[in-house]
From TrEMBL:
Organism: Culex pipiens
Major localization class: mitochondrion
InterPro entries (alphabetical): EF-hand-dom_pair (IPR011992), EF_Hand_1_Ca_BS (IPR018247), MICU1/2/3 (IPR039800)
A GO CC annotation given for this chain: uniplex complex
Classification of source organism: Eukaryota, Metazoa, Ecdysozoa, Arthropoda, Hexapoda
Record bears the keyword tRNA processing: no
UniProt GO MF annotations: calcium ion binding
Subcellular localization: Mitochondrion inner membrane
UniProt-recorded name of the protein: Calcium-binding mitochondrial carrier protein Aralar1
Amino acid sequence: MKALTLEQILNLCGMVAYCQESPMQIKRASTDKLREIFARYATQQINGELFMTSEEFVRGFLGQSYNEESVKLLAGIADTSKDGLISFAEFQAFEGLLCTPDALY
């Protein structure tokens, strides 16, 4: 599994910069594209539904260069149910957070 760079993550969000007076606007990735990315990293299956572990989720974003604190921080944001697994719905919601203009700062 190859880790995604920040630039790739933002590209998945479909960043669109407008040169006029409007601030940078970010277009979200399609559900199909997100599902494809999610399936690439998710290895856990429960009742037919795919899940990522916290470590798989963080490795997908940071590669092998991460520490335990990074895992806890990022996974804690994405794993809203706090069950140690990240569902597609949680992954999609996290992508939405990355696509907010404030996420760039």
